[in-house]
Amino acid sequence: MPQHSTLEPSMRSIGACRAQTLATEPHRHSHHHHQVVLGLHGQVWFELPPAQQRHFGPGHGCLLPSDCEHSFHGDGDNAVFIIDVSVKDESPLLIEASLFQQLFSQPRFIELDDNLQRLIASLASELQLRPHDLPLQQHISAVLLHSVFHRIAPYRNPTQASSGRIDLAMLDQLIAERLTDKISVDELANACHMSSSQFHLRFRQLTGMTPYQYVLQQRVQQAAWLLQNSSMSISAVAAETGFANQSALNHAIKARFDLSPGQLRRK
């Protein structure tokens, strides 16, 4: 079974990896090593700088450079696969130094295709049989670091055309910057160089949600974080996260968490 943890920083060996469950209580911290977080099952929520946040599960993950302050929590039954690496030890030997630097050049969310999802699940199962085998962990980390790099490499190629592709990390940043506005589907589609109808179809195929549902999810997650981590009034949280009024926020929080904003704040 995955370890249950809050992802608190720890001293680990070069290229250590493990499967673990994230606690449901929100946490915010940074650590001196880089970290890869890959969804295994269930849902987790992460907030990365600058103003990127996402609720994700299998098929998604995030890359956290060292000293990157981030927030996170698990949502019920969940598991993620974690790789810890550091430029201060010999972790770059797991992967070519230039690729290593590109992987952790900035905090970002990533998408995982079906082949990579199956590979992660298989390697996580293998590691469960030998959880303390450090050489096995290092080999698994090296395979996954290379595999992740080859998935994100096209995103970093400035000569590649960006049209016709949905970049969720870019959309997350755009949504976060416009939480107090009513950002339209047309604006999101234009950012991806697509027509609204094409964008709506591809977005639903990618996320399983409509663009409207996705934006609402981002607003609700940010509102929940503010309720639990700030002293802002409920009406101020509603205004900050783009809800028309406190009643609209109450309805959205109740639908998502089955709690009122006040109850969520006291939880």
Automatic annotation (TrEMBL):
<dbReference type="InterPro" id="IPR018060">
    <property type="entry name" value="HTH_AraC"/>
</dbReference>
<keyword id="KW-0805">Transcription regulation</keyword>
<dbReference type="Pfam" id="PF02311">
    <property type="entry name" value="AraC_binding"/>
</dbReference>
<dbReference type="InterPro" id="IPR003313">
    <property type="entry name" value="AraC-bd"/>
</dbReference>
<dbReference type="InterPro" id="IPR011051">
    <property type="entry name" value="RmlC_Cupin_sf"/>
</dbReference>
<protein>
    <recommendedName>
        <fullName>HTH araC/xylS-type domain-containing protein</fullName>
    </recommendedName>
</protein>
<dbReference type="InterPro" id="IPR050204">
    <property type="entry name" value="AraC_XylS_family_regulators"/>
</dbReference>
<feature type="domain" description="HTH araC/xylS-type">
    <location>
        <begin position="169"/>
        <end position="267"/>
    </location>
</feature>
<keyword id="KW-0804">Transcription</keyword>
<dbReference type="GO" id="GO:0043565">
    <property type="term" value="F:sequence-specific DNA binding"/>
</dbReference>
<dbReference type="Pfam" id="PF12833">
    <property type="entry name" value="HTH_18"/>
</dbReference>
<dbReference type="InterPro" id="IPR018062">
    <property type="entry name" value="HTH_AraC-typ_CS"/>
</dbReference>
<dbReference type="InterPro" id="IPR014710">
    <property type="entry name" value="RmlC-like_jellyroll"/>
</dbReference>
<dbReference type="InterPro" id="IPR009057">
    <property type="entry name" value="Homeodomain-like_sf"/>
</dbReference>
<keyword id="KW-0238">DNA-binding</keyword>
<dbReference type="GO" id="GO:0003700">
    <property type="term" value="F:DNA-binding transcription factor activity"/>
</dbReference>
